[in-house]
C-alpha cells in the first residue's frame, strides 16, 4: 500500500514502516529513543517491533497501565518524570506503541516535554489505525470527560502494521470498525456499501479498507486541520456517543463501553435525529440501526439515565456560545454541521434506539 502524506506527517503501511523509521532514526541522529507501551503492547507488540529497529542508540521502555481510565494528566506526570530521570533531552525521540490511549497521551507528553520532542506513533488497534493515526490530535481526559486537554501536533511518522491486528480480541476489532463505518456514512455511499456484510470481512479486506479510511480522514484534516468546518463532520455520532461513553465510564454499576461501542449507539441516535430534522431517509435509519445492532448488540440505557447522559453534552468540544452542536446527515456522504437539537428529540432518539 502506498504511503500517505497528511499535514507534514507521513503514514506508512506494513513493511514500509520499518525501512522508513530506520531511515528516519539514522538521519535525525536522536540522542536517545524512548518507547511508550502498556502491559499488552509490551508483551504482544514490542518484541517484534524492536527486532526490526536498526539503531545503536540507547532504547528505554516506559510502561503505563492500559485503558481509558488511565488517560489522565496524572499518567502524563509519571511519564514526564520518567523521561527526566532517564535524562531525556530535546533531541530525544518518543515512539508510542499502542491504541488511542497510548498515541493520544504519548503524543501529548512529547509535545509538552521540554516544549516539544519528536515522536512517532505506532497504532496497534484498528481504532487507532483509522482514527488516532491521522490529524495530530493529542491529549487526555479530564476526569471522566473525554479529551478535554490536549493540542494538535503531528508526529514525525505514523507506522501502520496491520499484523498487530492479529493480537486483538474481537471486541477491540469491532470497536475500530465503528470509526470506519462512520467514515462511510459521512464520506460516500460506495465506501459505506463495502460494509454491508460485516461478518464476512477478512484481514485482507481490512488492509484495503484501512488504507481507504485513512485517505478519507487525510482529506478532511488537510482541508480543515483545526476543526473550523469540514473536520467537524468526523464527530458524527460522537456528540451523544462521547456522553454515553463518559457516563458508563463514571458509573461503577455500569460495564465500561469501548469507544466504538458507544459511538455505534451515538450514530444510531444521530441517524434518528437526522431523519427528524434534516430529511435523512427513515428507511435508511432503520437499515443502519438493524445492521449495527445485529453486529454490535444493544446497550441497555434506562430512561432514568437519559437526563444525566444529556447533561454531559455541555462538555462536548464542538460547543460554542452555549450551543450544543450536532453533526447530522442529509444523505449518506452529505453531513450537516452545527445543528441544534431540542431535548425532546434527543429523548425520542433514545426511545427509538431502545425500541
From TrEMBL:
The keyword Cell membrane does not apply. It comes from the Bacteria. The keyword rRNA processing does not apply. GO terms for molecular function: 3-dehydroquinate synthase activity. Keywords: Cobalt, Lyase, Metal-binding, NAD, Nucleotide-binding, Zinc. Its cofactor is Co(2+); NAD(+). Residues 176-319 form the 3-dehydroquinate synthase C-terminal domain. It holds the Pfam family DHQ_synthase. Its EC number is 4.2.3.4. Residues 62-174 form the 3-dehydroquinate synthase N-terminal domain. NCBIfam families: aroB (TIGR01357). Catalyzes the conversion of 3-deoxy-D-arabino-heptulosonate 7-phosphate (DAHP) to dehydroquinate (DHQ). This is 3-dehydroquinate synthase.
Amino acid at each position: 500500500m502506498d504511503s500517505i502524506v497528511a499535514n507534514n506527517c507521513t503514514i506508512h503501511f506494513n513493511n514500509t514502516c520499518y525501512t522508513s523509521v530506520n531511515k528516519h532514526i539514522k538521519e535525525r541522529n536522536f540522542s536517545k529513543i524512548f518507547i511508550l507501551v502498556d502491559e499488552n503492547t509490551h508483551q504482544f507488540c514490542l518484541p517484534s517491533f524492536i527486532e526490526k529497529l536498526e539503531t545503536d542508540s540507547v532504547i528505554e521502555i516506559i510502561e503505563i497501565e492500559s485503558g481509558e481510565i488511565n488517560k489522565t494528566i496524572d499518567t502524563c506526570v509519571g511519564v514526564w518524570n520518567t523521561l527526566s530521570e532517564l535524562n531525556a533531552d530535546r533531541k530525544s525521540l518518543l515512539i508510542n506503541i499502542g491504541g488511542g490511549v497510548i498515541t493520544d497521551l504519548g503524543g501529548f507528553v512529547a509535545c509538552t516535554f521540554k516544549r516539544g520532542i519528536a515522536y512517532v506513533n505506532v497504532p496497534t488497534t484498528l481504532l487507532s489505525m483509522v482514527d488516532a493515526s491521522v490529524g495530530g490530535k493529542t491529549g487526555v481526559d479530564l476526569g471522566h470527560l473525554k479529551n478535554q486537554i490536549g493540542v494538535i501536533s503531528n508526529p514525525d511518522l505514523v507506522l501502520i502494521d496491520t499484523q498487530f491486528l492479529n493480537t486483538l480480541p474481537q471486541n477491540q476489532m469491532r470497536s475500530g470498525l465503528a470509526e470506519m463505518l462512520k467514515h462511510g456514512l459521512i464520506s460516500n455511499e460506495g465506501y459505506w456499501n463495502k460494509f454491508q456484510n460485516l461478518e464476512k470481512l477478512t484481514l485482507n479486506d481490512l488492509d484495503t479498507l484501512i488504507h481507504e479510511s485513512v485517505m478519507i480522514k487525510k482529506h478532511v484534516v488537510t482541508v480543515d486541520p483545526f476543526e473550523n468546518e469540514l473536520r467537524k463532520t468526523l464527530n458524527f455520532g460522537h456528540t451523544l456517543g462521547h456522553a454515553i461513553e463518559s457516563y458508563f465510564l463514571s458509573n461503577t454499576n455500569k460495564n465500561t463501553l469501548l469507544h466504538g461501542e458507544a459511538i455505534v449507539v451515538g450514530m444510531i441516535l444521530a441517524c434518528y435525529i437526522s431523519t427528524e430534522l434534516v430529511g435523512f431517509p427513515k428507511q435508511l435509519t432503520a437499515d443502519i440501526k438493524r445492521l449495527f445492532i445485529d453486529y454490535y448488540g444493544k446497550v441497555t440505557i434506562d430512561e432514568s439515565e437519559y437526563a444525566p447522559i444529556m447533561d454531559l453534552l455541555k462538555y462536548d468540544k464542538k460547543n460554542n456560545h452555549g450551543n450544543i452542536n450536532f453533526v447530522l446527515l442529509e444523505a449518506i456522504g452529505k453531513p450537516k454541521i452545527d445543528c441544534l437539537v431540542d431535548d425532546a428529540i434527543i429523548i425520542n432518539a433514545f426511545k427509538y434506539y431502545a425500541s
